[in-house]
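Incident review: delayed structure delivery

Summary: a single-chain prediction request sat in the queue longer than the usual turnaround. Root cause was a stuck worker, restarted by the on-call engineer. No data loss occurred. The affected request and its eventual output are reproduced below so the record is complete for anyone auditing the incident later.

Affected input:
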Amino acid sequence: MATYQFIETQTHGYRAEIQLNRPETLNALNSRMLDELADILNRVGEDDSVRTVVLSGRGRGFSSGQDLKEIGTQGENLDMGQHLDDHYHPVIYALRRMPKPVIAKIQGIAAGAGMSLALACDLRIGSEQAQFSQAFVKLGLVPDCGSTYFLPRLIGLGKAMELAMLGEVISAQQAYNLGILNQLVTKDRLDEATIMLADRLYSLPPIALGMIKQALNMSQDNDLDHQLQLERDLQRQAGFTQDYHIGLEAFMHRQTPHFTGQ
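Output delivered after worker restart:
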C-alpha cells in the first residue's frame, strides 16, 4: 500500500486497520490527513482480500475534529463549504459506499468532525474512556460531515437536537445508552473486542453484508414501494450467489457454513 504522512495502515489477513496518526493533536484532522484517508479508504474498498475495515486513532484520542490551527491560517475569507467538498466529503462517501463493514474503534475523544467520522462508520465500539461531542456550535458552526444525517437516525431527532445545540461532551456510557456505540468495553479489552467483532463479520457472507449495508443506507430515504423493489432486486442477486447455496446446504445439514464471497 502507499506510504502516508498522517495515516498508518496495517493489514492482518482479511482485516485492514486504518489509523489516524497525529497523536500529539489528538488526531486533529487537517487537509493532508483527510486526503490520505479518502485515498486509503478507496484502496481498501477495492481490495478483495480485505473483508473488514477498522478505523481508529493513534494515542489517547480517536479524533478531536478539525485542526483549527490550519483553518486559522487561511484567513476570514476561507470558504468552509468548499473545504468540506474538497477534503471531508470524499471521506464520508468512501465510508458509506464501501461494500464491506467498517468498524470505528474509539478509545478517547471523538469531537466535531471526529465524531462525524465515527458516525459514518457502520459499527462503533468504544472503551470506557471514549467521549463524544458535537462541538461545532461552540465555534458558531453547524454540524457537518454527515452528523445532521447520521445522528438523528441513530438516536432520534430530539436527542440529536440536544447534542448538536448544546455541544456538550457525553461519556462512553451515555453514548452506549443512546445507541451511538454498539459495544462498550473496558480499555484493556478494546483491541480484543474489536478483533472479535471483525472475526464475526468475516465469518459471514461478504456479498450479503455489502447488500445489507446498501439496503439499510437507502432505506433512510426510500418510501416503502422503492424499498420493497430494492429488496427484491438485491434478493434476486443474493439468491444466485454461491454463498447462498453454501449457507442453505449448511443449514439443511446443521453444519457451519464457510462462505467464499462468490
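Verification: Strands lie at 7-12, 15-20, 52-57, 102-106, 109-111, 123-127, 131-133, 169-171, 183-185.
Action items: add queue-age alerting; document worker restart procedure.
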